[in-house]
From TrEMBL:
Residues 6-67 form the HTH iclR-type domain. One of its GO terms (biological process) is negative regulation of DNA-templated transcription. The lineage of its organism: Bacteria, Bacillati, Actinomycetota, Actinomycetes, Kitasatosporales. This is IclR family transcriptional regulator. SMART domains: HTH_ICLR. It comes from Streptomyces mangrovisoli.
Amino acid sequence: MTAETSQTLDRGLKVLKLLADTDHGLTVTELSNKLGVNRTVVYRLLATLEQHALVRRDLGGRARVGLGVLRLGRQVHPLVREAALPALRSLAEDIGATAHLTLVDGSEALAVAVVEPTWTDYHVAYRAGFRHPLDRGAAGRAILSARRRPMTDPGYTLTHGELEAGASGAAAPLLGVTGVEGSVGVVMLADAVPERVGPRVVDAAREVAEALR
């Protein structure tokens, strides 16, 4: 800790991170042990976080992340979208296909930013807000590939006709961005994705990841 930081706020944020990493919640004693502070401090931290709906406690006394974090989370998408747009524009213009940034939203893939090329005669109409299962389409499959191989670069994923007849997709996962799980990709009207597209998508995903760090 430095003179410019708040110890109490630091501990409160650590509580939220610890709770976010468990599906079953944590007791006051467990949080006390993990934080290395006494139970009284933990009670005060939880009471403050509960007032802001960032933490809730069940009937058994286990603390869990509260619904208040959803209100904060809604503001993340616009920030992520803004950071990703330059790389997406470059990708769309270079490939001549619709480029997109897709993030995980529950059990689905959600397109949060879409850029269409300006010079093509036709391209796939793909809109921000479009949802689909994670196990269908290049964007979702790229995210799942990163989950299976989190310590390595999973490269890119290619699909054809899984979300729209006649359309092919290529996507690469975002890697090394804390708190963000997603992918960058393109969708095009083609029977197969040209060979150069996959590596180009990987480069774009790397650019977006760097902009988000």
